[in-house]
Amino acid sequence: MTAGGGPRSRAALGRLPVLAVLTGGLLAGCGTGAQGAATPGAPSAPGSVSGSPSPGAAPPEVLCARIVGYWSREVLDGTAYGDYQSMGLSDGQYEILRDVVDAARAERERAGRHEAEELIDRETRTACARRYRGGAPTEGPWR
Questions:
Q1: Distance between CA atoms of 15 and 5, rounded to whole angstroms?
Q2: Residue pair 70/77 in contact by the 8 Å Cβ criterion
Q3: Which end of the chain is more exposed for a tag (fewer CB within 10 A), N or C?
Q4: Structural domain boundaries, residue 125
Q5: What is the pLDDT of residues 101-127, one digit of tens each?
Q6: Is residue 26 part of a domain?
């Protein structure tokens, strides 16, 4: 605000009640009450009990399998191409993707699309579990 209560400060003060009403309205529909009970209308995760805390983050090997599996399908379909950074992968995850896609292409030719997708699921889970067995890789910032 400007010193002396000029026109700018009066305009800013005039917006405060509107901001307070909007903020209060947004907050009223979220979260839990004082006793930990869910506030009526509060959003909850699918399948969760209203008022229960959200689940923790997925372990790194699960996240790895999800993202590598997703991009493996995209690359197998020919709908995506990029370097590992544009896909949001580490160098090590990209190595897994390349190996999985090579195996999935061969499996698709041999046995069909469904079997190739099953191979992607199985191989990404196995490779990511192996990669994160001892915790997060420490070979460098992009590994």
A1: 15
A2: no
A3: N
A4: 60-131
A5: 999 999 999 999 999 999 999 999 999
A6: no
